Amino acid sequence: MAFTQVSLPLPILPEGWSGEKDFKAVGTLSSATQRNIEPVGPHFLAHARRKRHHRTFSEDERIQAQENVKKVEDDDAGDISEPEDPLMLQRDAKDWKGQDHYAVLGLSKYRYRATEDQIKRAHRKKVLRHHPDKKAAAGNTEDDSFFKCIQKATEVLLDPVKRRQFDSVDEGADVEPPTKKQAQKSGFYKLWNPVFESEGRFSKEQPVPRLGDEKSIKEDVETFYNFWYNFDSWRTFEYQDEDVPDDNENRDQKRHVERKNNNARKKKKTEDTARLRSLVDECMAGDERIKKFRKEARADKDKKRLEKEAAEKQAKEDADKAKIDAEKLKKEKEEAEKAEKAEGKKAKDAAKNAAKKNKRVLRSSVKDANYLQESGDPTPAQIDGVLNDVDLVMAKVDNEELAALAAKLNGKTTAPDVKSVWSDEVKRLVGAGKLKNGEAKTMGA
Questions:
Q1: Which helix (H) or strand (E) element contains residue 299?
Q2: Which end of the chain is more exposed for a tag (fewer CB within 10 A), N or C?
């Protein structure tokens, strides 16, 4: 390899510069090193390519452009490549609202899912293939109608507002619901899932619940159908509006067209809501999970009803039993109270009879003891005095004390013995505060 020696002179020093007064050493220079410099870079490669293939600048640029086009087409041939419909190539560019923008760019399988990068790559590929200059160079007609379709499709799909308007009415992204026969043959959930995935692109709320499968739980199924029966759609129909006149001279016509478009949008919105509701009804009618859940709900309801009836019956039986027991207990209590009352009355009568008997014994004791006179017959005054004292003592004692006093007097007949017992009783009553001292005159100590 040949080397080229390049001479680089040192820069000229400024006028008036002096080494003695202006030079300041900041370091030392290293020794010189010999290095090999090789020519590299895209410009050198382009020069080498032209020399090797004996091309001029224009020839080399044309050949490189063709290779770049082929490379771009090969790179994009995978995910954004699809056959072109001959009828689509003959479309009139003026009827741009009626064209399928995704199909024009070869993005039919992506549609509303196509990314901005995919749209740009598809546009580049279509432009390289259908550019009027390229067709003219190939000797074809200079008809650029389809090229204008490409440009319009790119303009719509790269504008978020215009693309949303087109996606709102893009029937190419719709999935037809299966018939009952198809659903039974090929799988209900397998065929209905794509339908709701397609309709879900219009939902303001994302992500959209999935239909699921036969193993889905009741809560997920109810969430799915509640979501779709209360579906909040952003779908609009401006794309299908009639063109509004731009001239300012016919304002009445402009307002008329605008009102017409607004009414048409509302009508289409109402029809679309009814269509979606009918779609959900049709899916729900054929969903075996709903039938299973309803059957389980009925069984659970019947079970609860039977349990409630059994509980009410048991409660009634318990209430009746409790009522019978209460009545029985009341009757037993009344009988016991009656018996107790009878026993009390009997005991009271017995006590009363015993008291009467004991009182007779007390009165008889003084009578048998000659009214406490040891000799001679007692005078009427003495008899009255003794009997009054006996009544006085009997009034101050209770039945038990009365019985005890009668027991003490039992068997005693002599005046001293009887008087001694009565005297002791009077002392006890005086000590208890029931009698005053000297109150029982004939029985005092």
A1: helix 288-368
A2: N
Q: Are 146 and 130 in contact (CB under 8 A)?
A: yes
Q: How far is CA 229 from CA 211, 278, 284, in A?
A: 13, 10, 11
Residue 177 backbone phi and psi in degrees, to 5: -65, 145
Other residues' Cβ atoms within 10 Å of the Cβ of residue 443: 25
Indicate the DSSP class of residue 25: -
Name residue, tokens 């309709």. 199
Q: Output phi, psi for 206, to 5 deg.
A: -130, 150
Using CA atoms, how far apart are residues 122 and 247, in angstroms rounded to an integer? Answer: 36
| Euclidean distance between CA atoms 274 and 279, whole angstroms | 9
CA distance 436 to 434: 7
**Distance separating alpha carbons of residues 186 and 181, to the nearest angstrom:** 9
352-406: pLDDT as tens digits: 888 888 778 778 777 777 777 877 788 888 888 878 878 887 888 888 887 887 7
Cα Rg of the chain (Å, integer):
64
Q: Are 290 and 284 in contact (CB under 8 A)?
A: yes
Distances in Å between the Cα of 158 and the Cα atoms of 118, 120, 203 are: 11, 8, 21
pTM check: above 0.85: no
DSSP structure class, residue 159: S
By the 8 A CB rule, do 145 and 93 touch?
Answer: yes
